[in-house]
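FORM 7B - TANDEM STRUCTURE REPORT

SECTION 1: FIRST PROTEIN
SEQUENCE AND TOKENS:
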Amino acid sequence: MHLLDNQIRNYAWGSTTAIAEALGKAPSGRPEAELWIGAHPDAPSATATGPLDQVIAEDPEHYLGAASRTAFGARLPFLTKLLAADAPLSLQVHPTLEQARAGFAAENSAGVPREAPHRNYKDDNHKPEMILALTDFEALCGFRPVPESAQLFQALAAAAQGQDGDGARLLRFCADTLTEATDESAALHSIVESLISGGDAVADAVEQAVESSSAIESLDSLQPQGNPSATAATLRDLAQEYPADPGALISLLLNRVSLDPGECLALPAGNMHAYLSGLGVEVMASSDNVLRGGLTPKHIDIPELLRTVDFRSLPVPRVTAELSELGQEIYRPGFAEFQLQRISSGPGAQPVPLAQRGPLLVLVLQGAARLDTPRGDLQLNRGQSAFVAAAEAPAMLHPVEQSPEGYLAFAVTTDLVTTDLEA
């Protein structure tokens, strides 16, 4: 097994304190947005013998196991992050595996540099992901039922009645398109395309919507599935953070989700979403492919975005934990690349065998625990993490005397059905 030294990404939307507090370290004074734990080539975790991606490449059969290597190739199939949002992330969507492969190959053939700001595909992998809230966590996630969106835009259009500006006309267009929709996906596609492409009319519409946002808060019929007050507040907050940005109006089409600590969302390909605030453990397929749709100064490729978005109204994709006999919570979102375990143990508790289907990452966020495999053991203190090779299975976590409060740990492995983990 390998003790890991992980990199922090200092994106502007990150919290200056949340990740440092979670790891038990002093804040750096800079926005700390994401702690990357894994072998992604853009920010691989360091080990005593080199970057984790290079360590794995030296003997992928040993580190990944036959099943993982067959399914995902000679790379660690998942990436784990601590994500701390102090401001909204960009409105975004992730491609399917087929879209990622085709897009990556096309941009390579066209000679687009990998770090070019207008490049869409940084790699050839998809990026299904899951977020488990560690604090209260706010997000936009997938399209809400069209009748709800219709009510929201009807309220804004009614408040703008009698005005002839471009913004008022755009709000009426959205309201009419949603109200009269016979093909809901086509209606959502039309509105998103109009908002992203709308130019000055969108800026006017955002301003008008913010001025009329109190009209949304009176929509009692949206309770309890929707939350008009939260929706109106989100509209105002986004418009203040990103003036004239179409993402503020697109937020009215999306589910506004509040997660309590321990609650979890899974985000498949095509799900338009944005994290708004909070700290969470995020797990995903090992990719950095993001197509943006708003709330960002970065490049937006409108045609590629529209080809990627799933415009169906679907239920909020919550993930409920399975509880093992020893009390660990296992979150399985249905993506073969990963599952997440949450293990909370008091002092003197029994050792907990970790679910391990090939490679394994372990992170301790409270107390200390001893990670034990047939080939050795390693004490992990608060904020430390480790990588366990497939060949070292089975792995167990033990409480330690130096941690009278017990420990809280998270473990990530694949969710392959096969149990063939031989090196």
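SECTION 2: SECOND PROTEIN
SEQUENCE AND TOKENS:
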Amino acid sequence: MAGKCNTGLVLSGGGARAAYQAGVLLAIARMLPDPEANPFPIICGTSAGAINAVAVASGADNYRQSVHYLARMWKNLHIHDVYDASLSYFIKTFFHFGISIATGGHGWHNPKSFLDNSPLRAFLGKAMPFDGIEHSLQQGALQALALTASCFSTGMSVTFFQGQPQIDEWSRHQRMGLREKIGLDHLMATSAIPLIFPSTQIGKLHYCDGAIRQMTPLSPALHLGADKLFIVGLTSQRPLAVERRSVSVAPSPAQIFGHLLNSVFVDSMSMDMERLLRVNHTVSLLQGHEDLCAQTSLKQVDIFMLSPSQSLESIAYQYAHEFPPVLRFLMKGAGGTKQRGMTLATYLLFEPGYCRALIALGYKDALAQKDAIRQFLEL
């Protein structure tokens, strides 16, 4: 494996936004002296980032081939591969919600979610070579793969990992790591956004999107042995002027829901980054004081974070016409096709035009920092 350190790759969640990560990983393949060598022995993913994590980990013995496969998958993805957006489905769902509410759940059982993601299960079942994970581990091209989900029953943030034998399970306050063979159910669980997609059952427990209650999204990689982290975030950099113009306007339902999704997928990563930077600062102050260093288990962790250089809302606005007619009608009614309400669309627009634009942006952003990335990965 390339690099002198155990570099952990951390891929955050964000629905269709995760296409950006494919572009970044594709650009890194171009930077590698040996494009087949995996530069990330530890790979951690949450929600849609977990899909990218599995794709890279399952082909870790040939990094370039795995990321090219991942990019092709995103470039040809459609909404109908992820969730049912047909008129008949939405009519049935609205009646289902209405009858359930009107009868207190007695006339018709409460619906599990607003959208049906069974197409995603079928798609991932065919597209993800899960057996490749064990092959990568046996070949020494991978140290560990981890996916994080949130348990409805216990309230715990659970990281399922498949890794080398010497890696131990862990348990901390409201979070734990469990060794399991990663499969389709784990991938569906970590990407099951509450209310939008139904929960997934693993064993006797039900799980939802891993970003929910994940207060320390960087910790799984550290537990698995990473001593430096390469993070591909999906935070949309919206111009400040747009925010100021929005202050005097009441938010639309799409804006409100987009705001809630941002609080789930963006805020915890930002807070954990700040926490880790404070730890690094504390450790740096202890350098030269061997007696104090011996009394703490804290260690300095090098971080490199790459995020979109452009507003994802602006990009989604250019491709909003790609929504299927029924969904476009619903998004318009909720204020989700106006530029100020495009945050929700950035998560749900699984269509080629938008995804290809994000891949191109990720590729461009990574190449713009080529020298810094090469230095960080010790290439």
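SECTION 3: OBSERVATIONS ON SECOND PROTEIN
The first strand starts at residue 7 and ends at 11.
Residues 239-244 have pLDDT under 50 and may be disordered.

SECTION 4: SIGNATURE
Preparer initials: ____
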